[in-house]
Amino acid sequence: MVIRSVVLWIHVLCGVVWVGTCASFLLAISALTTESAEWREFAMRTAPRINRINIVPALVVPMTGAGNLFSAALMRKTPFPPAFVGIVAIKVVLFFIMGVMLAAAFAAERSMRESFADGIGDGVAALRRLVRLYGTIAALGTVALGLGLWLAGT
């Protein structure tokens, strides 16, 4: 029972970290003057760190999610209700999309760094793309966390 609780809390904590890092970046970048030197420097300094931090939740969430599902299946004497299965399926799809967005965030961050460092290309466009990606990850992650809360009640 203790292991089950630990796995569940690790799962939730990783989801919160992933959403929180992206949302924190969005809040911070929105407080800065758009296209200023400070805006670019902040993004150049923080985006690589946020991407590296988010690798951990992206790897841990599916493992702990599978562990939670396995544990729930062992405790049940009857099959899962269709609503439960549907919610889990939606969470899996959301996770997949978030993973694709994280990979795209790595590409946007690399493009932004190269463009700003060389002075060639459009680093601002790459940074705006990164902001959109982080916003999408935060929104989808918030929905996934909400669905997880709903699952906890079933």
Task: Characterize this entry briefly.
This protein is mainly alpha-helical and 154 residues long.
Identify low-pLDDT runs: none
Distance between the termini: 17 Å
Helix content: over 70%
Alpha carbon gyration radius: 18 Å
Give the strand tally: 0
Q: What is the overall shape?
A: elongated
What's the pLDDT, averaged over the residues? Answer: 92
In total, the number of domains comes to: 1
Q: How much strand content do the residues show?
A: under 5%
- State the helix count: 4
Major beta sheet summary: none
| CATH topology assignment | Four Helix Bundle (Hemerythrin (Met), subunit A)
Label the CATH architecture. Up-down Bundle
What structural class should be given to the helix and strand makeup?
mainly alpha
Indicate the CATH class.
Answer: Mainly Alpha
Order of helices and strands: HHHH
Oligomer description: single chain
Explained architecture:
This protein has 154 residues and is mainly alpha-helical. The protein has one domain: Four Helix Bundle (Hemerythrin (Met), subunit A). The protein has four helices and no strands. The protein is elongated and about 65 Å long.
Sum up the structure in keywords:
154 residues; mainly alpha; Four Helix Bundle (Hemerythrin (Met), subunit A); 0% strand
